[in-house]
Write a structure and sequence with these properties.
heterodimer; A: about 110 residues; seven-stranded mixed sheet; about 0% helix; B: about 110 residues; mainly beta; six-stranded mixed sheet; five-stranded antiparallel sheet; about 55% strand
């Protein structure tokens, strides 16, 4: 079955700790994205990658970092510099940027205590 | 970044009703448009793409008005299972990066 796998599904961390969220896809998609969703809000773009070894900042990149060393993997690190990290994080992919449907993982719910 | 605006609702309708949502976008160069459905605490899933000539999928009809820069979603004969948040998505005409609206909440009651 092709799809996107995010892990962990739920994560609790203390303030000041860095956290890395995993995102793996086996759809052979070039483009991958990280979005953040807060309660009652839409999805806001953190980072995106159009191709391996390349990534671009989205609207709210401060306090986050990513890497794209392999086509199938796009991990997101939430650093201690992120002032309000508690949120629902969604990873998505598409054949390429602008190419129609986004496929989402099930999301990672991060709570910082 | 260019804006995508939706009425957050909630729209509270009885089963069998017809309900319509609008979504406005500010970037006139936007190229492609979509409606996604998101259930509570789940990931969004594609409901339908929106084509220039309008398109229909069963009880769902999507329309695009480029002159006024809005898209719409019409749901006929609402079912309880249609209760969800409906997200409007616009691909920016320059970068082709998807931009999401805040979503419109629909509650269908018996």
């Amino acid at each position: 079955d092709g799809g996107i796998t995010q892990s962990p599904k739920y994560l609790f961390r203390k303030e000041g700790q860095n956290v890395t969220l995993s995102c793996e896809q086996n759809l052979n998609h070039d483009a991958m994205y990280w979005y953040r969703q807060d309660p009652g809000q839409g999805l806001r773009l953190i980072y995106y990658s159009q191709i391996v070894n390349d990534f671009q900042k989205g609207d709210i990149a401060e306090g986050y970092s990513v890497s794209r060393e392999k086509k199938e993997s796009f991990p997101l690190t939430v650093t201690s510099a992120q002032k309000n990290p508690t949120a629902f994080y969604l990873c998505a992919s598409s054949v390429r940027t602008g190419a129609g449907e986004l496929f989402f993982g099930e999301g990672s719910r991060l709570t910082v205590l | 970044r260019k804006e995508v605006e939706q009425d957050p609702g909630p729209f509270n309708v009885p089963e069998g009703a017809t309900v319509a949502f609008n979504c406005t976008y500010s970037n006139s160069a936007s190229q492609s448009f979509f409606w996604y459905r998101q259930d509570c605490r789940k990931e969004p899933k594609l409901l339908m793409s929106v084509y220039s000539s309008g398109n229909e999928d069963g009880r769902f009809t999507a329309q695009l008005n480029r002159a006024s820069q809005y898209i719409s979603l019409l749901i006929r004969d609402s079912k309880l299972s249609d209760s969800a948040t409906y997200l409007c998505v616009v691909n920016d005409g320059g970068s082709y990066i998807p931009t999401f609206g805040r979503g419109t909440s629909l509650i269908v009651h018996p």
